[in-house]
Write a structure and sequence with these properties.
The structure holds 2 protein chains of 2 kinds. Chain A has 11 helices and 11 strands. By secondary structure, chain A is an alpha/beta fold. In chain A, the strands form 3 sheets. Chain A has a 6-stranded parallel beta sheet, sandwiched between helices. Chain A has a 3-stranded parallel beta sheet with strand order 1-2-3. In chain A, helix 2 runs parallel beside helix 3 and helix 8 runs parallel beside helix 9. Helices cover 41% and strands 13% of the residues of chain B. The chains are: A alpha/beta, B alpha/beta.
Chain lengths: 323, 335
Amino acid sequence: MTKATVVRISNLKLIDQYILSYARLPFHFLETSVRGYWNALLVHQRGASPNTLTIAKVVSREPGDPERFFAQLAVAIAKNPNCKEIDLLLVGHDDCPVTVYSAIARMFGRLLNFQLFWSAQVLGDVAKTLTASSVLPSEDIYHSSRDAVVLTSATVGTLLPPPLSRNIAREYLKTINPSGYFCAISLRYDVPTSESISALTQAAERYSDWHFVMLNDASYFDSRELPLNVHLPSRAGLDVLTRLCIAAEVDAFIGVDDIYGLTTSISGKPAHLLTGVGSSPGVSLALSNVHCSAELPDNDLPHYVDRALSKLRQKSPVDRIFA
Amino acid sequence: MNLIIAAEISLSRKNALGILDFRYAPYALGDTFTWLTNVQIKAHLHGHKPIDLVLIFPPEKRARGHQPYITSYNQVQVMEGLLPAFLTCPSVNSLRIFQSKNKVSQRILGAILSHAVSWPTLKSHFQRLLDPASHSCINAFYAKHKWLPRLQAPSGFKSETQYFRSRYVRQRVPIVINIRQRALTHDPAGLHRDSSADAWYDFLAQAHRRWSNAAFILVGGFSEWERRFAHLPNVIIPRMFGFGLGHELTLLFEGAPFFGTSSGFSAAATFSNTPYTITKVEHQTTANIGLPVGTERYPFALHHQWLNWEDETGPLLSDLFERLWLAADVNRCGD
């Protein structure tokens, strides 16, 4: 029986290789040629591909680089809400994972043509095939990524996360507590671990009806030291893309203005952001749902978390309904 | 001729083109490394040209028949999960992942008009013919040149991997292990290739006493390990601490010996300089790799790289690991 099946499969492979593949050859050759020429013609005539947002970016090790990229993309999408595709041209860096940038771009739900180069010169060569208008020289590409970006209310609602990651994120929260309220947390890197744990413990005890989800890299935490209502999705095998979807799904956010904080912010959820601690220079927020503090009050993180949570609680839907 | 096509032709002349079209190629970690090695060989055979990698996954197309569970609903996650693997190829000028059929067609039109070097050939691409696991070109290249272009650690993950080593591995010797356990996942394919979890658990429990200085880094999908492995003191699971494929591959390509089942990670080891022993090599792969069952090494393997074709047992794994440990130890002393 097994032998007969193997023989049948190998016969099918031979038929495919020697007969069907030759039937496919002219069809796909013609399809590729026509589509390719048509695309080149459109670019030649219109200067760029229709319905496409082209973003060029040099990845940098500077703190806050992914946040600037996130903000630039959100603003660009807000200005071009009908764009169907994103042409993302990245110049990679040997010490920065490009997977973060790819995950950020996927959060906006457009078809993504992700293009990674190892030098601005190669990017320049490729850019000539994408646009008929003048191409940014390398200096301009480096310069443009440092421009200040303002996130306004126009950016709220621009996110359209990929369905599977969004579902995994929602189910992750439901598995913890299907009717619970969740506050995402991104703690500062420059605060000692003991102080962070103290702040979280204090918050978790005082706000026992909330669950806290720590989103930024928490690999330095020993999860056994954390209170039971503090959760670490990175320890559950959830990647950056899914953690971004968690940030879009939670009920509130407290912490630094990293990619997760910005995600919650432009999802229209209440957020209490600590800005200016070195994470995202060049991004400012003008959103009514976001409260920003430039300084840590009295340099006291537990006190800050406590104050932020009490404010969020006053604004939370539960308290508004039952007040 | 319009300027856009002229620019595309100019680009194509400079580079060797690697095409991986997921409308007919599988989304598979192991096949990715084999494909990358084939692309490198093609580039070397045509004057060491820099490489332009082009991946195609339009949203409306399903993957080939044997991966029916990959659809437009989940293909973005599958692609994101594989992305670090495509960063392991040296001499790459660009990696371009297209969802737009028209844009990738323009790129390939440039290759047609310039008669560009590509893997697979343009004819094979139009025929939708790619044998992704085949070693025939690789073996032929090695037989002629006595040398093979190897893959390297994916760029971008070095410092985070260094942090992982200092935080979790410390002074111990990291050994990358992968135990194929697809039966534990949502896409249980090729279950006959899965390893015995019991055999590996027995081996690792014994190894704690016998090789007390070894830290076994269990790599692979988060769902592909039973909870009992996380309790072993000599086992570290990077994905439990927020690390991923890029960090795991960096560890492997930076020389942490690999010990594990014939699967995606073993293909990474196969095309690396890292010491390895690949266990439970599937007998059906003989057609792909061009070797009879029982062959101890790939033709292009280095002196500390072995294959084993038997079903795993605790004692067998101990014996195989002893040989690998000694070879890797000699290798470390040599460094």
